[in-house]
């Protein structure tokens, strides 16, 4: 029985790695830049732990970050928000925290309807704690509000594992720089 669980972890790790590498390669061709560099290029400059050194759950968290962004790009917020806990919290820069999956969904639906709004992110690294019940991903986020300059920020997503599924519990963002 223990061998089956171990094999399942290996299969998940390999699958997540393949998807992560695939998403990474696809994202590398992104035209979204900040002062002439893509988020992938900027992320590579900040990466201290090689992708190959991440374990299966860490690769899964990196994949989830990219999957959620893909769903945002498609406008599929209903599916994207299934990866959040019911009481998830997001802490955008300059405003109060938004509590609850449904409140976040309403906020992002409104933002995505605004002409000139842009949002993208690229995870840099992931870490899963002992016992694989909690983990985090940090990375870079790029956004633009209508009639404003593009901003580059850092973010951290804190995940918890509930019923075998990783869910985002807390998201924190801040501004590093504004495009020149």
UniProtKB/TrEMBL annotation:
SUPFAM superfamilies: NTF2-like. Residues 64-167 form the DUF4440 domain. Coiled coil: none annotated. Keywords: Signal. Pfam families: DUF4440. Gene3D superfamilies: 3.10.450.50. Residues 1-25 form the signal peptide. It comes from the Bacteria. InterPro entries: DUF4440, NTF2-like_dom_sf. This is Nuclear transport factor 2 family protein. It comes from Marinifilum caeruleilacunae.
């Amino acid at each position: 029985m223990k061998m089956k669980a171990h094999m399942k972890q290996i299969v998940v790790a390999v699958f997540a790695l393949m998807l992560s590498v695939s998403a990474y390669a696809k994202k590398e061709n992104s035209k979204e830049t900040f002062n002439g560099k893509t988020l992938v290029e900027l992320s590579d400059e900040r990466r201290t732990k090689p992708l190959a050194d991440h374990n299966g759950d860490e690769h899964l968290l990196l994949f989830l970050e990219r999957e959620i962004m893909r769903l945002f790009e498609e406008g599929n917020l209903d599916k994207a928000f299934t990866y959040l806990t019911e009481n998830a919290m997001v802490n955008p820069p300059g405003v109060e925290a938004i509590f609850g999956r449904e409140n976040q969904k309403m906020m992002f639906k409104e933002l995505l309807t605004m002409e000139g709004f842009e949002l993208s992110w690229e995870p840099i690294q992931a870490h899963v704690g002992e016992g694989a019940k909690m983990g985090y991903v940090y990375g870079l986020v790029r956004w633009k509000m209508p009639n404003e300059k593009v901003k580059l920020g850092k973010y951290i997503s804190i995940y918890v594992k509930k019923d075998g599924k990783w869910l985002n519990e807390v998201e924190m963002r801040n501004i590093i720089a504004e495009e020149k």
